[in-house]
Amino acid sequence: MPEFIPAAKPIIGDEERAAVDRVMRSGMVAQGPEVKAFEDEFADAMVDGRTCVAVNSGTSGLHLGLLAAGIGPGDEVIVPAFTFAATGNAVALTGATPVFADIELDSYTLDPADVRAKVTERTRAVMPVHLYGHPARMDELQAIADQHSLLLFEDAAQAHGARWQDRPVGTFGTFAMFSLYPTKNMTSGEGGMVTLADEETARRVRLLRNQGMEVQYQNELVGFNNRMTDIHAAIGRVQLTKVGAWTRRRQEIAARFDAELTGVTTPVVLPGAEHVYHQYTVRLPESLAPARADILARLKEEFGVGTGVYYPVPTNELPSFNVEADLPNTRVAAATVFSIPVHPSLTDEDVTRVVAAVNTVVAEAGA
How far apart are CA 203 and CA 201, in angstroms? Predict the structure, then answer.
């Protein structure tokens, strides 16, 4: 078998190692000047200068953003069910209730029509996910929020550099969160970045991440220890200089997949969207849903191609929530999608192998 092509592959080079070593030698390894520099550089590079606050994980970023925006017990926040559980978890951790809405099958992002149908007198906010690197329909969601006097947040965990109608994600809502987990389009080793529309909410996130204090031993509120270290920020600063080129490579690979894959539904890029392909996710015909596990096993065992299923169980159906909801597109996606390697370390020969493997296995499964 040829060398295995993993579904995801973090890229850590000599520059990142040198940055970590620089911080280690400085003796200042907790939150310090590297974190502040990373926040400023991320703001300029990704979100048109919006205030940024670095935290220790993407989930922390969602949780603190929600708390800082005033979300709590008695509130409802509309979220997609077709995403990672952290989106709904963060809402639940505030004491609020996540209300699960359906997605559109073309973009895998929140369906504005279903969001509108889910609004109640308890709804305080809508939080779309820019899933797989494709932006949600932010103009339509903003219109719904404005009509009902709701807050709008963004889970941009997978969407570094994505744009909607020539505006970067992370600049629409009261706050947005970008994950910096190792498999994301860029990483800090672990961490998250919260981008904020106003300074008062940003200050509350800073307080919440640091035990409720800006000045040592002057705790203004009950907070958490959700700080990012200077070690992680140093890695993130280096990655920030590389992510643009990596995104262009992802888009080049995706263009080949779009042109060459057969037997599956390839990702749709909506007019006005720039997709950054955190995942390249295809969809099997519904008739082949029962064969998905066998298809993925063959891709791995016979062709050396890694895959992932993001996400096989809708969040509302997880034991942690167990909420009934009529989400037909979510159920179709959960049963039929799988993601193939699109990371920028793929060679052109790797892409050719992936195309040949998927086309062969899917065709034989449907024969």
Answer: 5
